[in-house]
């Protein structure tokens, strides 16, 4: 871990799960710091500015357009290689009622009942 923190590793694997479902929670953690990324020593001031602009907007259409622009910038820079997306398996009996899937894979069972 010390070598990774110092930038002495050319490559490493990292797992990440956003917890709110908002695009800002997924990308700003890694890309909003215009000086240096929290992970990977990547920095793009233009990308950080686009993301910081998106944070300030309440118009969801305009926000979505900025996040699409940011996504393209991240893709073009190849600062990360996204290799997997885990979907935890869930199985229920027909007796289970009230389960609502969560897009962030944070499962809430307070509405679940077993008949």
Q: What's the gist of this structure?
A:
This protein is mainly α and 115 residues long.
Model description:
The protein is mainly α. Helix 2 (23-31) packs antiparallel against helix 3 (45-56). It has a domain at 2-77. Strands 1-2 form a two-stranded antiparallel ribbon. It contains four helices and two strands; from the N terminus they run H-H-H-H-E-E.
Could you name the key traits of this structure?
single chain; 115 residues; mainly alpha; two-stranded antiparallel ribbon; 2 strands; 3% strand
Blueprint (SSEs and pairs):
Elements: H1 2-5, H2 23-31, H3 45-56, H4 60-77, E1 96-97, E2 113-114
Antiparallel strand pairs: 1-2
Helix pairs in contact: 2-3, 3-4
What is the total tally of β strands?
Answer: 2
Report the radius of gyration as a whole number of Å.
18 Å
Range of strand content:
under 5%
Summarize the amount of helix as a percent range.
25-40%
Q: What string gives the helices and strands in order?
A: HHHHEE
Mean model confidence by pLDDT: 83
Tell me about the biggest sheet? 2 strands, antiparallel
Low-confidence stretches: none
Strand order of the largest sheet: 1-2
- Could you say which overall geometry the principal axes of the C-alpha atoms support? extended
- Give the helix tally: 4
N/C terminus separation: 48 Å
Structural class: mainly alpha
């Amino acid at each position: 871990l010390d070598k990774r923190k110092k930038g002495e590793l050319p490559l490493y694997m990292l797992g990440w799960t956003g917890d709110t479902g908002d695009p800002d929670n997924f990308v700003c953690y890694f890309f909003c710091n215009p000086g240096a990324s929290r992970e990977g020593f990547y920095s793009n001031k233009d990308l950080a500015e686009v993301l910081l602009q998106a944070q300030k907007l309440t118009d969801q259409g305009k926000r979505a357009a900025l996040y699409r622009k940011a996504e393209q910038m991240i893709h073009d820079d190849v600062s990360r290689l996204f290799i997997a997306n885990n979907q935890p398996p869930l199985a229920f009996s027909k007796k289970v009622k009230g389960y609502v899937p969560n897009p962030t894979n944070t499962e809430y069972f307070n509405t679940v009942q077993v008949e």
